[in-house]
Amino acid sequence: MSRIQDDFDASLKTVEDARSLQDLKVRYLGKKGEVTGLMKEMRNLSNEERPAYGQKVNELRQHIDAAVEEKRAEIEAAALEERLKSETIDVTLPGRTFNIGSQHPISRIIEDIEDFFLGLGYEIQEGYEVETDYYNFEALNLPKSHPARDMQDTFYISEEILLRTHTSPVQARVLEARGGKEAVKIICPGKVYRRDSDDATHSHQFTQIEGLVIDKNIHMSDLKGTLELFAKEIFGGEREIRLRPSFFPFTEPSVEVDISCFKCKGAGCSVCKKSGWIEILGAGMVHPNVLRMAGYDPDEYSGFAFGMGPDRVAMLKYGIEDIRHLYTNDLRFINQFKQTEDGGETLESL
After folding, report:
1. Contacts by 259-266 with C-beta closer than 8 Å and gap 24+?
2. What is the torsional sign of CA 153, 158, 160, 163?
3. Does an H or E element contain 339, and which?
4. Are 280 and 303 in contact (CB under 8 A)?
5. pTM of the model
6. Which terminus of the chain is more exposed, N or C, with fewer CB under 10 A?
7. Sheet holding 123-124, edge to edge
8. 10-residue block means of pLDDT along the chain (350 residues)?
9. What is the C-alpha R_g of the chain?
């Protein structure tokens, strides 16, 4: 047994890694190991010799077990030390800069507008971009023969299915769903499509947000007050609005809404084309025919509607001269709209 222990001790000194250590342990303590072989010799001994022999074999086993675990701890400590040396962090190096993304200017404007109207108690309603002719035109007082359809020529999938030209179909569907008995107070954001030639101020696809309020005793003064608050919220507290007579088939009376120029404050500049005013949206009182088709009694209910393009609002607010910049995914343009690490915003283009 002394020979086996001496051989083990000598072999242990040459072990340098965990794999070799495990092989050495199996060599001595495995099922066919040398210590296990000693135990098999007990059957050849007398009953008087077995206790002393068994005790010596157990002492040898314990010695090998303890030596193996001690060596294993040494190997693991050395490996950890080597790993710490190779993975040392140089705290004097400059920190890494992480690129922070930012919202697209249109998305930012839409969220600002939604937040404003949610604060006034409006609901946000969304609808289909592929619509029927009925909801896109006829339910909004635009029968098939109406000449105003020429201003909203769009992309047709069939004679009755088309890409919507405005988000007004959402309003028509909501009115119909309310059954002519409930008040309505909604805004409808989304993409719309028109057959138009793309240039600096026109696009065949753009975004729109429309609003609709239906209830008893709704007047033109309610519309004007709402739009004044909107102009001040989005373009600054000094903004004023003016209403000009216009025509929309689904409202009567109808108005174009201008805001006082935020660039020159009414003095006249290139932004407002020397007029001091900027056209921003269209609005009006909901036409009685639209109410009737949705099941509302125009003698009992009234309301107002308005529509605006977030694209145009973004162009005015951020000084964007070409609507095509909003849709070409040019990173040189998008990267001008940054967001700081604390959530603030910087517009490098301004």
Report:
1. 259/231, 259/235, 262/235, 262/236, 262/238, 262/316, 265/238
2. negative
3. strand 337-339
4. no
5. 0.66
6. C
7. 123-124, 184-193, 205-215, 302-308, 277-286, 251-260, 241-248
8. 78 85 82 76 76 80 86 88 79 78 86 94 95 92 82 86 93 91 94 87 90 95 94 88 92 93 78 85 94 93 94 86 87 74 43
9. 40
